[in-house]
Amino acid sequence: MMAENNGLMLALFIIFCVAAALQLFYYLWFYLAPALSQDIVNESPERHVSVIICARNEAENLSRFLPSVLQQDYPFFEVIVVNDCSEDATDDLLGEMVLKYPNLRISSINKDPKFTHSKKFAQFIGIKAAENEILLFTDADCMPESTQWIRKMVSRFTDNTDFVLGYGGYIREKGLLNSYIRYDTLFIAIQYLGMALRGIPYMGVGRNLAWRKSVFFMNKGFGAHNHIASGDDDLFVNSNATAASTKVEFCPESHTRSVASSSVESWIKQKHRHLTTAGYYKLRDKFLLMLEPLSRVAFYALFIVLASYLFLWPYLLGVFGLRLIIQAVIFYLVSKRLNERGNVIQCIAFDFFSPLINISLYLSTFRNRAATTKWK
Prior knowledge:
Number of strands: 10
Strand order of the largest sheet: 3-2-1-4-8-6-9
Order of helices and strands: HHEHEHEHEEHEEHEHHEEHHHH
Distance between the termini: 58 Å
Helix content: 40-55%
Number of helices: 13
């Protein structure tokens, strides 16, 4: 009986070591990449740019953040705000702003009770209205971190570049929810930026993303995913971006900041919308994205089981400690690179719970389809 128990413990220890090895692979190959990537100064000519912002009942946010977009230090750009069926003061606000800023253009969509649409339709209207080949996207509740945002994002375009992925973080506020949202956003950014640097561009975020207008129409717009309410950013990148056609921009001047959800309910609805798109990713990307959290759950669970029996505890602690040290160092380096300093301890603490939270949210999307069809 003792021999059988030791055999089981040894098998669990081997699985634990395999899970740890997978974790180290993700951290050292993908997640470290953003920290090791060097800023590149591109001497390419300044290109004409169309910034596209879709807004529905966003008068307060537009009043707060739109001037920082319109006042960018860049000579050749227009800003297109798509006023999508707003019922607040958005129309009046934009009417005042267009008199002050000659580079502001407005496209309005009137409400029609017989026709409902997702954000993708508003995006399409903005893209159609754009006069320039380079399209830069952000949201109404976003602000650039500097006046160099457009310049830095567009500087990564060459004749062979179709996509530029940027970082969009959230404004730091008090509270556990805000801390977790910023951790979740940082970790997702480490994933998609790191994988893009390793030749696997699988998504981008609409808070800070650029692509070519010609690529959009060449690939029939949002194509096969047009019926899905969300995915105007990540699914388009997942379907059309390649290692050769995608660049990443990291420098702090290129970042954007957004207002985080202020309630758990609104954040869950937001996560539901985003998680509905994951099932439409390429099989390779789904495999890589599922393997990491599964190996993380196995790593923590088996550590708890093995530690409770003190089985090979010096080796157990050694493996656990090695992963913890590497994780902390990489979180620190990437957080510093993305200007998210001061949250390494929180990242390590949230690392234990986030796979369970995301798995429960993913499963709940199948029982809560109504929440995934809303514009925002």
